[in-house]
């Protein structure tokens, strides 16, 4: 699901909880940071993702620190990657896995 296409007014998405395996957000947080709370958007993303889901966030370096901290606090496993533009690029990619809640016996 493309988060940017679906976001409307910082309100919850009209979707069933735990409905997606992968969410992709391109420039969502940089564009919406003045209008929406970043942690609220990430909590909504967490609600939408199935256990063991994945999140790909392509966004400005200026918001990546807060996104990475929030992802870690939510129990995600974030990894920050450079784009093909190199280490001085103004964009980074945050790839994060949502923790699995299954218990294997």
Automatic annotation (TrEMBL):
Keywords: Glycoprotein, Methyltransferase, Signal-anchor, Transferase, Transmembrane
GO biological process: methylation
Protein name: Methyltransferase
Protein origin, superkingdom: Eukaryota
A Pfam family this chain is assigned to: Methyltransf_29
Membrane topology: Single-pass type II membrane protein
The keyword Methyltransferase appears for this protein: yes
UniProt xrefs under InterPro entries: Put_SAM_MeTrfase (IPR004159)
E.C. designation(s): 2.1.1.-
GO function term, MF aspect, one: methyltransferase activity
Family the UniProt entry places it in: Belongs to the methyltransferase superfamily.
Record localization: Membrane
Gene Ontology cellular-component terms listed: endosome; membrane; trans-Golgi network
